[in-house]
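Title: Request for sanity check on Aminopeptidase O isoform X4 prediction

Description:
We are preparing a figure and want to confirm that the structure record we downloaded matches what your pipeline produces today. Could someone re-run it with the sequence below and paste the raw C-alpha cells into this thread? We only need the C-alpha cell string, no images.
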Amino acid sequence: MDPQLDPMKDDLPLMANTSYMLVKHYVLDLDVDFKSKVIEGSIVLFFETGSQHRKNSSTGRECCQSEFDQSHKMRASEPCHVPVTNVSACSSKMEYNGFAVSGEGEEDTSDENGNHSNSEQASGISSSEDCCDRENHGNQDFVLVLDCCDLSVLKVEEVDVAAVSGIEQFTRPAKLTDVSKELGNLRNHIVHELVALPAKRWEEQLCCFTHCSQAPGCGELPFATGPWSLEIRKPGIGTPADFPHAIRIWYKTNPGGRSVAWTTDQSGRPCVYTMGSPINNRALFPCQEPPIALSTWQASVRAAAGFVVLMSGENSAEPVQLPEDILSWYYYVSMPMPASTFTIAVGCWQEVKQQSFTAAIPTNTEFSLPSVQADFSWHEAMCGHVGYPCRFQNPAVSWQAVIPHRVFSPCCLVELCEERLLPLIPQCLSAAFSTLGTHPFSRLDVLIVPSNFSSLGMASPHIIFLSQSVLPGGSHLCGTRLCHEIGHAWFGLAIGARDWTEEWISEGFATFLEDVFWARAQQLSLEEVKGQQELKALLRWRRLRDEVQNSEEELQVLRPNKESTGELSESGASVVKYGLKAEKIFMQVHYLKGYFLLRSLARTAGEASFLLSLRKFVRKFHGQLVLSQDFLCMLLEDIPKQKNPCWRRSRRGRSVSSSGKCAARSQNGFRQTRGSEKAAKRKENRMK
C-alpha cells in the first residue's frame, strides 16, 4: 500500500480510482430497520470511462489493472456464501444467471469488522496504487476501486441493461465486431448513451436509470473489501473500457458504522441520520468520494409507518403505502454533486406548519447590496459546468427570492420552531437572494436534529440540519446560523472545493456571508450594520487568537498541501490531509481565517464592489469545483482600481497569472490576517 494511504495515519484516504472509471449516477434501494439498526438493500452504479484511460488509450497504452495473488484466485463461478435477506423486497424480478444465492443455514463469512469477500482470501487484492498505476501486460485484470468502510458487502453483479424493454433507442449506433465481447460492449454502449443524454432530457434519463437499475443481473463479480475500499474485478477484463459500466452491489450497514448515527430524538423516539462524519458517506453506501466524482442520484427508502424519510432531493417526497405497514419514499437530484453531500434522516419528524403570518421581506436600501437586476444580464452567458437542468439558465426562477421550504422537528419542539425558526426562513432566503442572486436549489427542508449532533448546523443539497441549541433565546443565534447554512448553497454545494483541504472556500465564505445576509434580513441601518459586524469581528478575532495559541501550527494552515493542492495520483486516489485528526473536528481556524481574508478584501475593494464580484464568481463557477486561485484571479480581473500593490502592479502590465500567483502566495502563507486583527486589537484596547 502507498504509505500516503496508510489508514493508521491522520489523513483520510480517498481510494477510488476515478481517473479510470467515474460514477455518473447512483440508484439506491434501501430498507431501514430500527430493530437491528441496519440499513440494507442495493445500490446500482452507472459509470463512464475516466480521463486517464482515455488519455492512455489515445497513445496506445493499456492501463489500470491489478495483480492478484495467483495462489488466492477469486472464482466467479462460486456462489457468494453470505445469506442475502429481503432481496425479494428490494426487487422481485432479479435473476442471477446461474449464480446461487445462499439461503438459511449457510455461514456468514464476514470478519469481526464486517468485511466480506467472495474470494477465498481477500488479501489477494493489491492496493489501489498497485492495481491501477502499472502497465497491462495482457494477463492481468482491471480492478475497480470504490471508497467503502464499515459495510457488509453481500454480493456484486453486472447489470444486464440490454434486457430492459424499450432500450433499443440507445443501441442503434453501436458498432459490435468482437463476438466474444458483443454483449458486454452493447451494455456499456447503452450506459454511455444514457449518461450522455442532454440536460433537456433529464426526466427521460432519470426514468431510464430507474428501469435499468431494475434489470436482471448477468453475472456475479468477484470482490474484496479492505479497511477503506471495495475492490471489484471481472475475470478476463483488463481495461476500464471493457469493464461493466453498470453494476449492482447488495450490502448492509454496520450498526456502529461511522457515517450514520442511530439515536433517539428529543421526544425519545428512534431515528437515524447522517451526522457529518469525517469519513463522509462511505459507511452508508459504496461510492467514489473524491470531489471530482460529481454524480446524480435517486433513492427509494422504505421504513415502518410513522417514520418520515428526509433526504437531499429536488422533490418533496410523498410516501407510498406498501404491505405490512411499510412506507416507501423516493427522492432524486439532477444536479451532479459529490457523493459526500448525500444526506438522509429517518425519524418520527413532525412538519411545522406555516401559520397565517406574512414574513417581512427586506426592503431597506441604505445597506448597499447588489441589485438582483445585475444578475439578469448574465442569464445569456453559457454555464461552465457539465450539462444539467441549471436554475441559473431558467428565467422563470430568476426572480424567486424565497424558494419553497418546510420545517421538521421532533414533536416536543414543534411549537418552539413555529415561534422562532419558521418566520426567519423567508427573511434569510430573501436576503441571500438579494446578495447573490438565483438560488442554486429549488427547495429547502430544515430539520432540527437530535441532541447528539456535534455542530450548530450542516447544509446539504435541499436540506439543512440545525441543532436545537439555536432555538432558545432571541432570534439572533437562530438567524445567523440559518444564514450561514443558507450561504453554503452557493459556497460549498453549488461551488465546491476541488481539494477538500481548502475548506475555507466553503466555511470562510459562509462565515463572511452570514453577516451580510443577517444584516439584510434584519433590515438594519448602515450604522447598525457597521456596529454589529465590528463587534462580531472582535469576538471572532479573540476566538482565532485563542485557537492559534492552543493548537498545532500544522492544523492552522489554509492550504496544507501548498503547491500540491488539487493534485491527484495517476489512478485518481488521494488523501485529505489531517482529515481523521480528532482535534480538527472542533477547530474553526478555516472558518475564521477565511472570514478575515474575505473581510480584508471587501474593505480594500469596497463592500458593494466585492459583493458584485462574489455574484459574478457564482455565475461563472456554479456547478464546478474550484481552487483558491480561481477566486483570487477572478477578483484581480474584476476589480480594476484597488489600493493593494499587487493589484496595481497587475494593472501596469503584469499578466493575470503572475498577479494571481502574488495573491495565491499571500493566501498560501496565510498565518494570521494581520490587518484585520490589528484593527480589532486596537478596538479591544479602546474598549478596555
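Thanks, this matches our download. The two ends are 57 Å apart (CA to CA).
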